[in-house]
Amino acid sequence: MSDLRNLIEQLVLQTLQELRPGFPEIRPLVEVSQVKNTSNNYGKRVPLVAANWKMNQLSASARAFVLELQKLDRKNVQTVICAPHILLPVISAVRKEADLLLGAQNFYPETAGAFTGEHSLDMLADAGIQTVIIGHSERRNLFGEQDQLLARKLAHAMAHDFLPIFCIGENLAERKDGSTFRVLHNQLITGLSEIKAPFPDPEKIVLAYEPIWAIGTGVNATAEQAEEVVAFVRERLSEKFSYAYAEKVRVLYGGSVNEKNAASLAAKPNIDGFLVGNASLKVSTFMSIIEQTAACKRRV
Ligand code: 13P
Q1: Which of 27, 50, 55, 121 is the residue whose CA sits 20 to 30 A from 283?
Q2: Does 138 participate in catalysis according to the annotation?
Q3: Which of 104, 123, 103 lies closest to 115, judged by CA?
Q4: pLDDT the model gives residue 34
């Protein structure tokens, strides 16, 4: 019965969106407050832990990392390694398990052409890559990537059957002046704006809340702060798509995650895993975060 209800809800919302693109004022058919309770159905979402190596590692260390990681039983946690482009073929060559996903940290949303310095998704697929990070604050702030480009990248990645990890996050000034939720709402809604009905499977999009003030600072968001935002993100997803859809989307936390704070963050029902920077450079630390995530999610 609830499946039928979910189906009807999705069809009605998709029809409304086709008639009135960007229908922000139309409320979902399910009360938003109910979305918070979806966390009790946790078992439906497979936890995901992704390493974002940023501009780190060389071929020998990357190869050794992946060989070591594959000794760990990771069947309860989907694991992703997002490496610099030049290392992707190196780690692809030593990957033995299809369920270890490899990700790129950037691409350009065109098929081919005069885009000096860029890589297309076809090139990444050719190198054995399945995942891409989009909207990371370092791409937004250091490389000037704007919301419109990020929206195109997200839709392009989904259309090409890549698993995108779409990042949003506020800076310290925004957190302090109380505009966190407005900023995140804008980033999220603009980012999703190029995704049109029929919507792709909810399992094929991953969101990551990465507060800029927590990235590389050693000051992580508390589990309560992160959970509050991730629940907010799920509510917005419910408005854009549907309650049933939002319930299935994985939402990660990133920002100074390490082996000491992973368990308390993973214990929060809406947080489905992590996007890990510094602590993903050492394989033993990264494996500890994966193991702790698996253990917490078995209990949640
Ligand atoms: P840190 O884990 O180093 O804070 O980086 C987080 C991040 O930016 C992952 O994408």
Answers
A1: 121
A2: no
A3: 123
A4: 33
Question: pLDDT digits over 280-294, tens only?
Answer: 999 999 999 999 999
Residue percentage of the chain with pLDDT more than 70:
86
Candidate from 97-101, 192-196, 224-228 with smallest mean pLDDT: 97-101
Ligand 1 pocket test: pick from 133, 256, 258, 282 the residue with the most ligand atoms within 8 Å of its Cβ. Answer: 256
Q: Which among 235, 232, 211 is positioned nearest to 221, based on CA atoms?
A: 211
For 81, other C-beta atoms within 10 Å of its C-beta total 25
pTM of the predicted protein model: 0.86
CA of 18 to the centre of ligand 1 (A): 37
Could you give all domains of the chain from N- to C-terminal order, each with its CATH number? 45-299 (3.20.20.70)
Asked if residue 68 lies in contact with residue 96, where contact means CB atoms within 8 angstroms, the answer is no
Index of the ligand 1 atom closest to the CA of residue 133: 10
Q: Is the dihedral of CA 167, 171, 174, 177 positive or negative?
A: positive
Residue 97 confidence (pLDDT): 84
Q: What angle do CA 71, 73, 75 make, to 5 degrees?
A: 135
**Of the residues 137, 215, 258, which should be mutated to test ligand 1's pocket, given the most ligand atoms within 8 Å of the CB?**
215
Q: For residues 192-231, b (16+ Cβ closer than 10 Å) or e, as one string?
A: bbbbeeebbebeebbbbbbbbbbbeeeebbebebbbbbbb
85 in active site: no
